[in-house]
C-alpha cells in the first residue's frame, strides 16, 4: 500500500492546464507544482500565464511554461501541445479548465452564440485532449480532468448557451472514458458557486444575488479556487487510479431547500 506522499507525488509529471491564468486554473497550477509537477499554464491572457509560470518556478523550483492560447483555434492548440513536448518531452495529464458563460435568457440566444459557446466550453477541450492522446497513452496513470458546472447537469434556462455546452462536455467525457479503458482516465468535476473575483459579476451576478445563493448553500460559503484545485489533484493522482468516467461534485453540499417550507 502506498503512503499519502507517494499517492500524491507528481514528480516527473507534466500537466497542461487550460484557463491556467484564471482563479481556479492558477491555483491548480501552483498546487500541482507544489506536488512536484512541471506545469504548462495556457491561457488567452498571455501576460497572466507567463507571470504565473515565472512565479511557480521561483516558488517551487520546478520548470513551468506560460503560453497564450485561444482554445477555439485548433492551430493554436497544436502549437501548445508541440511547445509542451519540445520543452518537457511528454504530456502526463491535462486539466481542461476553460469555461465561460454569462446570463442569457432561454429564448435570447441564436445560432452563432450557441455555436460559440460550444466551441469555447466543449470543442476546445475535445481538441486539446485529442492532440494530447498520443503522448498520454505512453504515461502511467495518465489522466484528463474537465471543469464541468452545476448548470450543465441541472435545468438552467438562465444560462442556456453555457449550460448546453457544459452538458455536452459531460457526455463527451463519459464517451472518452469508456473508449479509452485502462490507457487514460477521464473524469469531470461538477463545480458549484466559486468565489472567482470579477468573473461572477461579468457573468451577470450582483452582490445581492451572490449573498442569496450563499444563504442556501449547506456549507454556508462559496467555494474557493483552491477547493477545486484540490479535487483536480485527487482525480489526477494515484489515489484515483481506479476512477474513470466519474463526475465529482464539489459544491459545498449544494443548495438545500426544505421539503416542508414554513414560508
TrEMBL record:
Statement: the UniProt record of this protein carries the keyword Oxidoreductase: yes
Superkingdom, taxonomy of origin: Bacteria
Residues passing through the membrane, by range: none
Keywords attached to this entry: Oxidoreductase
Keyword field contains Repeat: no
Family: Belongs to the short-chain dehydrogenases/reductases (SDR) family.
Name this protein carries in UniProt: SDR family oxidoreductase
Protein source organism: Pricia mediterranea
Amino acid at each position: 500500500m502506498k503512503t499519502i506522499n507517494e499517492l500524491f507525488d507528481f514528480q516527473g509529471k507534466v500537466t497542461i492546464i487550460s484557463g491556467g491564468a484564471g482563479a481556479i486554473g492558477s491555483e491548480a497550477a501552483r498546487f500541482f507544482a507544489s506536488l512536484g509537477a512541471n506545469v504548462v499554464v495556457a491561457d488567452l491572457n498571455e501576460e497572466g500565464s507567463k507571470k504565473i509560470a515565472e512565479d511557480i518556478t521561483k516558488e517551487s523550483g520546478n520548470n513551468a511554461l506560460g503560453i497564450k492560447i485561444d482554445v477555439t483555434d485548433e492551430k493554436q492548440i497544436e502549437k501548445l501541445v508541440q511547445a509542451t513536448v519540445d520543452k518537457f518531452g511528454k504530456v502526463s495529464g491535462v486539466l481542461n479548465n476553460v469555461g465561460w458563460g454569462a446570463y442569457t435568457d432561454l429564448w435570447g440566444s441564436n445560432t452563432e452564440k450557441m455555436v460559440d459557446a460550444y466551441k469555447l466550453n466543449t470543442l476546445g477541450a475535445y481538441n486539446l485532449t485529442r492532440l494530447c492522446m498520443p503522448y498520454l497513452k505512453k504515461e502511467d496513470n495518465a489522466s484528463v480532468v474537465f471543469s464541468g458546472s452545476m448548470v450543465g447537469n441541472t435545468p438552467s434556462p438562465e444560462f442556456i448557451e453555457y449550460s448546453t455546452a457544459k452538458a455536452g462536455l459531460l457526455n463527451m467525457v463519459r464517451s472518452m472514458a469508456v473508449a479509452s479503458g485502462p490507457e487514460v482516465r477521464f473524469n469531470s468535476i461538477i463545480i458549484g458557486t466559486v468565489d472567482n473575483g470579477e468573473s461572477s459579476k461579468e457573468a451577470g451576478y450582483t452582490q445581492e444575488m451572490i449573498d442569496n445563493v450563499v444563504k442556501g448553500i449547506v456549507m454556508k460559503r462559496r467555494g474557493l479556487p483552491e477547493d477545486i484545485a484540490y479535487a483536480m489533484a485527487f482525480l489526477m493522482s494515484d489515489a484515483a487510479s481506479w476512477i474513470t468516467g466519474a463526475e465529482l461534485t464539489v459544491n459545498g453540499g449544494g443548495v438545500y431547500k426544505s421539503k416542508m417550507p414554513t414560508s
